[in-house]
Design a protein that fits this description.
The complex is a heterodimer of chains A (372) and B (545).
Chain A (H helix, E strand, L loop, with lengths): L1 H21 L11 H34 L15 H29 L7 E8 L2 E6 L4 E5 L5 H5 L16 E4 L4 E7 L4 E5 L4 E5 L5 E5 L5 E7 L11 E7 L1 H20 L7 H20 L17 H4 L2 H10 L15 H13 L11 H8 L2
Parallel strand pairs in A: 1-5, 4-10
Antiparallel strand pairs in A: 1-2, 2-3, 5-8, 6-7, 6-9, 9-10
Chain B lengths: L10 H6 L3 H4 L12 H4 L3 H29 L10 H36 L7 H20 L27 H28 L12 H32 L13 H18 L2 H15 L6 H14 L15 H13 L1 H15 L8 H24 L1 H7 L3 H31 L5 H27 L14 H30 L40
Helix pairs in contact in B: 4-5, 4-6, 4-18, 5-7, 5-16, 6-7, 7-8, 8-9, 8-10, 8-11, 10-13, 10-14, 10-16, 11-13, 13-14, 14-16, 14-17, 16-17, 16-18, 17-18
The chains are: A alpha+beta (372), B mainly alpha (545).
């Protein structure tokens, strides 16, 4: 009779675990790629192996604790070794591990085969945003956190995708093998989207490879997984997967926009035009370190307000933004911002928050420095 | 596999040679005055200093963890800014690893290794004093960085370059210096323990007669000597990168940020076993006492400990599966890591077989030891899952990892230290710890620790990265549960402090052999143990025949 109860409780427990362990939001997502499904399968296999071993081991343990209580008059036996048993419980786990290692090896080999990709995207980690560059397509852009500051500080209700929203997602075609080339311009970041089962570190000085082939159109969200400084929690990854035709149309549109931006280099820009554009660039790119009002976060991130070393020396200011400052967190923006954006943001920094130099920096001046 | 002569047999003999009587001569010039604790070379007093230091650091590091849990109670930034949040997670990790767990085990070794091998003191008493007093200096320096411009270390306890070099706050140089001091302390302590165990064992005590606690500490001490210099090397390279313009880890100068991780984890993985092997020893001593039955598989326990120690040098890159290692390296480290499950499993099976057909009672030390077995094993299971490299890509740097290592370190290492304190307090103070408060402490800790760490498995699997001060809404429930558990666990530790103080002040007097199932040598000296014991070593030579 008691055995029936125990069995029923066990079945109920496993059923509960099965339902909840597979429930959305409690477990690793199955994901939308063949690799992610294999990874999920490995995860569930090793999980159930652990559950079974745990049930046996803890079963024997609690049986012993219950059965051999001194308060129930248990007399201690005196045995302290048994070679056969000891060999048995060394060998059996070894066999289980070998059985587990075989499918794990196969999946890993598959994950490492990034050859014959249909599309290459260079993914560069920056403090604290991602930069995507479609290799050979002249399309590249930053992807910044789009959750408003007010939601983080609690003065505004939080959206459903709080902290997982960006201004421009990474757009990828479905059913194509996409190779992701990861690197970083500053510290180590890690690009992770759970639904793709891709997590790879973006390391300065290295180019790492990963690949994915997404089965279903949709929006897939992830985050930077490697501690990368104060805003590590605020650099999400969003992937928008769409059918090939839609992707081609999107790419063509982006190319046109890039061409239009390039044509703006040659004309003369007015101060209000540059200030407007500069404020926007400053807000998305510079403010996370130098702060919204240019006050900085000394000693690591210097103030820009009243920074005479820069305000008195335009050449140095331009050099700092274009080439970065070696040995400090200040990155070079020559590869990631275009001449218009750089000219605008320098103009803005020299004329905002009481910095009244009146300097107007034209994009053509910057362009000359970018392509000497 | 098994020894011809189980260590059990020696107790009856050791009781005849109780060292306490011979020690009375020294009671006359018991050191006193304010400099007593500063200048002491006595292993028991230094052991006490280590334990008090460890408890202090445990409480300070705990308060930092509570700051973290308070910020994570709800989504959004409420209490602290991200800059300070990162300092709290970093300092919490550094203080718990280097300030609480390691000195806790060293304190237990100081007290108990000489008593368990029949030695009058540690082999190098003045070095012992120096090893201890380096620690308060090191940690005062480390804590003072929080007040420096730019704040304290904010790059995680693993301090990956270049975040910890080019991008670090100016106080990093002080952090390096304090870690150097803590490292020297550990190396000197380890040398002392090896010298003591290899040279000062009572006549007739063979290596295979030693308690598992002494065995695991001997192996741990070798691990310390092997890897602390590697840590010293890597932080010196950081020091040079920061202050002298070298580029060991700076890619722009031709350096290699991944080299940092290889060096760090070549130290770091043995380091995590440094924090668990002595725990295995403690559990292997406590379980037989309260099961009133000899430890099952003594020899296989020793071999398993040695195997784990050797394997610990061959698995470091499983912390680095996502850095882009070549496939062959990835496979090698996956296989070696899975292999660790075998000797670890042997240990768990041995403990459970020791319980089987015993005569079991459930005093507080036993409760903590049993909780250790269950909860450490859960941490072991998640460790096995993490070993599967393809799945690790999904687990790595998420709360699943945070859950894993806290399961092996808190209800693992920390519970073992608490079990040891409850177990040996009668020997140290001459009084039994209050059983009623002890049980309250135990049950609140067990409930708190599981409420704190179990939901982290789900948060991690669902996609929450570690070391973030704010999180997406789907992780809110898990985090709220964890924070409540954190405060329950944290506040219950005040009961522990209470039990210890109460026990020092008085309580039910304990006889020399405080636990009726205890068999080791320390139970042959009076309780409380006099300042000097085993001045004339107990003669165990008759036992061997």
């Amino acid at each position: 009779m008691r055995k029936t109860y125990v069995l029923a409780a066990l079945i109920a427990g496993v059923a509960w675990l099965e339902r909840n362990a597979l429930a959305d939001g409690w477990n690793m997502p199955v994901g939308v790629t063949e690799v992610s499904r294999h990874v999920h399968g490995l995860h569930m296999t090793i999980f159930w192996i652990c559950v079974v071993i745990g049930a046996v081991v803890f079963g024997v343990m609690f049986y012993s604790l219950f059965r051999y209580r001194r308060s129930k008059g248990a007399q201690a036996a005196n045995f302290h070794e048994h070679t056969t048993v000891e060999i048995f419980w060394t060998a059996v786990p070894l066999l289980i591990l070998v059985a587990m290692a075989i499918p794990a090896t196969a999946t890993l080999r598959d994950m490492y085969d990034a050859s014959e990709a249909d599309l290459d995207v260079m993914v560069t980690g920056h403090q604290w945003r991602w930069h995507y560059d479609y290799v050979g397509e002249d399309v590249n852009y930053f992807s910044n956190l789009a959750t408003p500051r007010e939601q983080i500080d609690g003065t505004q209700a939080k959206d459903a995708n709080y902290l997982l929203e960006v201004d421009q997602p990474l757009v990828l075609p479905v059913d194509r093998k996409v190779r992701l080339l990861m690197t970083s311009s500053d510290v180590i970041h890690s690009w992770w989207v759970p639904d793709l089962a891709v997590k790879k570190d973006a390391i300065p000085g290295f180019v790492n490879e990963a690949w994915t082939r997404i089965d279903e159109p949709g929006i897939y969200r992830g985050q930077c997984a490697e501690l990368c400084g104060k805003d590590h929690g605020f650099m999400p990854v969003v992937v928008h997967a769409m059918p090939q035709e839609e992707f081609d149309a999107w790419l063509a549109e982006r190319k046109e926009e890039a061409a239009a931006a390039a044509s703006g280099v040659d004309r003369n820009w007015t101060l209000p035009e540059l200030m407007e554009r500069g404020e926007q660039v400053y807000g998305t790119i510079c403010a996370s370190c130098h702060q919204a009002e240019g006050q900085g976060l000394p000693p690591t991130f210097p103030a820009l307000v009243g920074n005479q070393a820069l305000l008195d020396d335009l050449e140095r200011h331009i050099d700092t933004v274009v080439n970065g400052v070696a040995g400090t967190p200040m990155p070079a923006f020559s590869g990631t911002l275009n001449a218009v954006d750089i000219a605008a943001v320098i103009t803005y920094e020299r004329n905002a928050w009481g910095n009244e130099t009146g300097d107007i920096i034209q994009p053509s001046t910057i362009q000359a420095q970018l392509s000497p | 596999m098994a020894p011809k002569h189980p260590p059990k047999a020696r107790l009856e003999h050791s009781e005849n040679v109780a060292g306490g009587a011979a020690a009375d001569v020294h009671e006359a010039h018991h050191p006193s005055g304010p400099l007593r604790w500063l200048l002491t070379t006595n292993h028991k007093e230094i052991g006490t200093l280590y334990l008090v230091f460890s408890l202090t650091m445990f409480l300070i590091g705990g308060v930092m963890a509570l700051v973290v849990r308070l910020e994570l109670f709800q989504p959004g930034l409420q209490l602290v800014r991200p800059e300070f949040f990162n300092q709290m997670t970093t300092m919490h990790g550094l203080i718990m690893v280097f300030g609480a767990v390691m000195p806790g085990f060293v304190g237990l070794a100081n007290w108990m290794v000489p008593l368990q091998i029949g030695a009058p003191d540690m082999a190098l008493p003045r070095l012992n004093n120096f090893s201890f007093w380096l620690l308060p200096v090191a940690f005062l320096l480390l804590l003072s960085t929080l007040l420096m411009p730019g704040g304290g270390p904010n790059f995680g306890w693993t301090f990956y370059a270049p975040l910890s070099t080019t991008y670090s706050p100016p106080s990093t140089t002080f952090f390096i210096l304090s870690l150097h001091m803590a490292g020297i302390s550990s190396i000197l302590g380890a040398i002392n323990i090896i010298a003591t165990i290899l040279n000062l064992r009572a006549p007739g005590m063979r290596l295979m007669d030693m308690t598992l606690f002494v065995w695991t500490w001997l192996i741990t001490a070798f691990l310390l000597i092997a890897v602390m210099p590697v840590l010293a090397g890597v932080i010196t390279m950081m020091l040079l990168d920061i202050n002298f313009g070298t580029s060991f880890f700076n890619a722009a100068g031709g350096g290699d940020p991944v080299l940092f991780q290889h060096l760090f984890w070549f130290f770091g993985h043995p380091e995590v076993y440094i924090m668990i092997l002595p725990a295995f020893g403690i559990i292997s001593v406590i379980v037989p006492t309260f099961a009133r039955k000899p430890l099952f598989g003594y020899a296989s326990m020793v071999y398993a400990t040695a195997s784990i120690a050797i394997l610990s040098f061959l698995v470091w890159a499983h912390h680095m599966f996502s850095v882009g290692l070549p496939l062959i390296a990835e496979l090698f480290f996956m296989y070696t890591t899975m292999l660790i499950a075998v000797p670890t499993g042997v240990k768990v099976f041995n403990w459970i077989t020791t319980l089987f057909r015993g005569s079991i009672t459930f005093e507080t030390p036993m409760l903590f030891a049993l909780a250790f077995i269950v909860l450490f094993t859960i941490g072991g299971f998640s460790g096995l899952m993490l070993a599967i490299a393809p799945a690790d890509f999904q687990y790595h740097d998420t709360y699943f990892v945070v859950a894993h290592f806290h399961y092996v370190l808190v209800p693992g290492a920390v519970f073992s230290i608490m079990a040891a304190v409850y177990y040996w307090l009668p020997k140290w103070t001459g009084h039994y710890p209050d059983e009623r408060i002890g049980r309250w402490h135990f049950w609140l800790s067990v409930i708190g620790v599981n409420l704190l760490f179990f939901p982290m498995h789900f948060a991690g699997l669902a996609g929450m990265p570690r070391r973030i001060p704010d999180y997406a809404l789907q992780f809110a429930d898990f985090n709220m549960a964890s924070s409540i558990g954190g405060f329950l666990f944290g506040l219950s530790q005040l009961l522990f402090v209470w039990v210890v103080i109460k026990c020092i002040r008085g309580g039910v007097p304990a006889p020399a052999k405080a636990w009726d199932g205890a068999t080791d040598l320390e139970w042959s000296v009076p309780s409380p143990a006099p300042l000097h014991t085993f001045e004339t070593p107990p003669d165990l030579r008759r036992v061997a025949s």
